[in-house]
Amino acid sequence: MGGTKSYSGAVDGGVRRLLRVEGLVLFICAVALYWRAGGSWVMFAALILTPDLSFLAYAAGPRLGAAAYNAMHATIAPLLLGAGGAAIGQPLALMLALVWLAHIGFDRALGYGLKHAQGFGFTHLGRIGRSARGS
Q: Hey, is 116 helix, strand or coil?
């Protein structure tokens, strides 16, 4: 059809807004379930930023950095951890999963998406940081 359109690998418009609202709802639900389950707020505060330690992998390059970041910021692992914890009656696993999901939801609500190998600023929710300002 017509000319060639470049694809950035990022969503935009209404889809981007929907994914950010979805992140906010994930954050609210994870925090509410954590509260309802009687989780320790000291533990929550101590662990809420733990997934961001994956940033350290960017020291080995953007491809490895993106892979490590995405592994810690996709919902698959915390959902499996939470479901497994609930299934075997292990409340600590469930609490850790809820903190992890709250972190992911908060990041998504702020517009921090999963990373592309081009660099930290290239996400599925659009460009962030200096890479966004420079374009």
A: strand
Closest by CA to 111, choosing from 14, 49, 20, is: 20
Residue 53's nearest CA partner among 100, 97, 109, 95 is 100
- Strands, E, within the chain: which ranges? 115-116, 119-123, 126-127
3-state secondary structure of 104: helix
Chain segment 41-77, per-residue pLDDT in tens: 999 999 999 999 999 999 999 999 999 999 999 999 9
How many beta carbons lie within 10 A of that of residue 77, not counting itself? 16
* pTM of the predicted structure, to 2 decimals: 0.86
Residue 92 CB coordination number (10 Å): 10
Note whether 114 and 9 are within 8 A (CB).
no
Q: Is 63 helix (H, G, I), strand (E, B) or coil?
A: helix
66 and 117 in contact (C-beta within 8 Å)?
A: yes
* Residue 102 three-state SS: helix
